[in-house]
Amino acid sequence: MPGLQTEIKTFSKKIWHLLRDTVIEFDEDNAIKLSASLSYYTIFALPPLIIVIISLCGIFFGQDAVRGEIFGQINNFVGNEAAIEIQNVIKNVKLNHDNVFAATVGIITLIIGASGVFGEIQGSINFIWGIRAKPKRGLFKFFKNRLTSFSMIGVIGFLFLVS
Fold this sequence. Notes:
mainly alpha
């Protein structure tokens, strides 16, 4: 039995050190501040994300079916009243198709805003893990990152519908 007590003590110390180190690292990395800023950014990026997901998945499944499924899922998370408000906001977003310039600017802004949240996630993870980001290599790198983010939005939207 003394061997078992020693093992339990050793295991308990390891667990304690793990928890202590986790709390210390959490505090040193400003994880609460990063999560708050990411949450704030995501709240403002959510409507463009939903619009992009509805547009992309609507090509394959029909926009009404996609809207119904998305808002059913949102209803599960935030409740009926908030889901109805979100649905009304998305319904009221319409681009003016008569003005090609305004429509183009609107679409570009929508894509940048919707994909920007992934850049924020990447920056936060890089900071927490102590990874130095490679320096930007101009406009091509910017568009490549945005295309990757936009592709992730499409994949996430598809997975969202399938689940």
